Amino acid sequence: MNSFPELGSMLCTLRLSGIVDRLEVRNRQALQAHMAPIDFLTLLLGDEIARREQQRLSVRLRRAAFQSAKTIEQFDFERTPGISRSSVNDLLTCRFIAEAAPVHIVGPVGTGKSQLAQAIGHQAVRLGHEVHFATQSQLFGALNSARLIGVYERRMKMLARVTLLIINDFALKPIASPHDDDLREIVAARYEKFPTVNHQQPCGRRMA
After folding, report:
1. 169 pLDDT above the threshold of 70
2. pTM, 2 dp
3. Where are the domains of the chain?
4. Which of 52, 72, 148, 169 has the fewest C-beta atoms under 10 angstroms from its C-beta?
5. Could you tell me which residue, 68 or 207, shows the higher pLDDT?
6. Residue 194, Cβ neighbours under 10 Å: how many?
C-alpha cells in the first residue's frame, strides 16, 4: 500500500520507480534513525541508481546471449589444474578490452574453455561492457539468416562494433565460403579497435 499517493505519482511521472518501491521502508528507517533530510534523499537516490544499474546489467546479459549463467566464482579450478589463475585474474580485470587485444584460449576437450570464455564475458558485462557470445555455427547461421531477410549489413555492423565478441568452438569445423570472407571482414573491422575471445582445440593466453 502506498502511503504517499501524491508523491508516488510525481515520482512515477519522473520515472523514479526505484524510489517509489522503497519509499515507505526508507521513510521508516529515516524516522527511526532521526536521519537528516539530505541523508534521507541520498538514500532514496541510491536506491534509484541501484535499480537502474540492475536494469542495465539485465539488458547487457540478455544481449550477450551466453549459453551458461556460470560466473568465474563457479569455475572449478581444481578440475583444470593446468590453467594459470594469475592469467585468468589478469583477464578478469578486462584490461585486454582497453588494449583491444585478442584472447585465444586453447586446450583439449573438457578443460573448461567454453565456461572460462563465458565467465570472462560475464565479468565484462559486470564492468559495463557490451558483449556478444556465439558458437561458430550460431555466428554464421545468424549471418545466413541476415542475408535472407536483408539485414546482413546491420548484423555485420553489430559484430564489428560490439565491445567484446566471444566465439565458441572456433575453427572446430572447416570455414567455407562465404563465411571465410565474413570472418575476414569481422576480424579486419575489429582489428586494434575491439577485442575478440575465441577458444579452440589443440589454457593460455596468446596475443596476436
Report:
1. yes
2. 0.80
3. 5-63, 72-200
4. 148
5. 68
6. 19
Q: Are strands 196-200 and 131-135 parallel, antiparallel or unpaired?
A: unpaired
The three-class DSSP label of residue 111 is coil
User: Does the domain formed by 72-200 have CATH 3.40.50.620?
Assistant: no
Least confident of 89-93, 108-112, 135-139, 183-187: 108-112
How is residue 105 written as a grid cell? 584460449
If you search the block for the grid coordinates 556465439, which residue do you land on? 134
Report the alpha-carbon distance of residue 84 to residue 63 in Å, rounded: 29
DSSP 162: S
Q: Rounded to whole angstroms, how far apart are CA atoms 176 and 156?
A: 18
Q: Which residues sit opposite 165 in a β-bridge?
A: 132, 196
Q: 74 vs 8, 70, 115, CA distance in Å? A: 40, 6, 9
Chain-centroid distance, C-alpha 188: 23
- Half-sphere CA count of 157, side-chain side, radius 13 A: 4
Alpha-carbon distance values, 133 to 32, 125, 126, 194 (Å): 48, 11, 15, 14
Distance CA 50, CA 120 (A): 23
With residue 196 as reference, give the H or E element that holds it.
Answer: strand 196-200
Q: Do the beta carbons of residue 111 and residue 83 sit within 8 Å?
A: yes
